[in-house]
């Protein structure tokens, strides 16, 4: 971590200040360097390949780590929407248990303070369970959807259906935690959508699966070209469920340039410089003793020292 200080932020209504991060590394979350590199590739590729403008959507924002990153790629005229419960109650008991244990300190204000430390404007925030998204986000409007909210099977099934409704042609859908032992429901829902719903695979990292509801080939080709020049990411190709899947592994992945804070950390206060200590005064006779030691033969020096000691003892 390069910076550790936080600039204080006060709200206009006088609520207690929440410290704002002054560097991206300070934002809490689970968004690895490795997936940052892959997000960057997809979003830059969309820009460079002249993809139509399209909105960005994140289900599950927590304290904003991945949202702040996604916000960097928002282009003129596009909308970025995040949906999270934040500090609202979860819609069912299992979801309540999941969120209470995993995100006990999460608040919407915490997210907003973090996001505004890096961007001038907040995204559109939907503070609600993700099942409202299909009604609140325009159909076929999004070019990139990050699904990282509830990791319970029923919720992910619903989020997958919403992603299909809001996906613009060629949209990328990124699923978090598609293979972790602590959330098998995500794997079950994602692979069921691949087998039965027409979800098309692009690639996987250790933590995320990237797919589309359209032809994955244009992405796959560009991705493989890019990976050739990335020794920090190993890759291979497997056939899975009749589709080609690019596997991407971490060889010390280098993250892209992190989002820049709008207000960098203040320079540290200059510390007062202590005046130099005066040199110690030489003891009386010290210069004479040094000269004698350097010039006289040791036998004479010893005799003088012994005579001086005896004189001191007699006093
Ligand atoms: C793993 S965190 C998101 C992490 C974030 N994307 C990042 O990379 O830092 C999951 C988030 O989903 C939210 N969440 C859980 N269940 C939800 C639901 N049913 N509807 C909306 N949000 C939910 C939680 O409040 C939490 O903030």
UniProtKB/TrEMBL annotation:
InterPro entries: SAM-dependent_MTases_sf. The keyword Repressor does not apply. It is an enzyme of class 2 (transferase). Keywords: Methyltransferase, Transferase. Residues 256-283 have a biased composition (Pro residues). SUPFAM superfamilies: S-adenosyl-L-methionine-dependent methyltransferases (SSF53335). One of its GO terms (molecular function) is methyltransferase activity. Gene3D superfamilies: Vaccinia Virus protein VP39. It comes from the Bacteria. Pfam families: Methyltransf_24. Its EC number is 2.1.1.-. The keyword Transferase applies. This is Class I SAM-dependent methyltransferase. It comes from Streptomyces toxytricini.
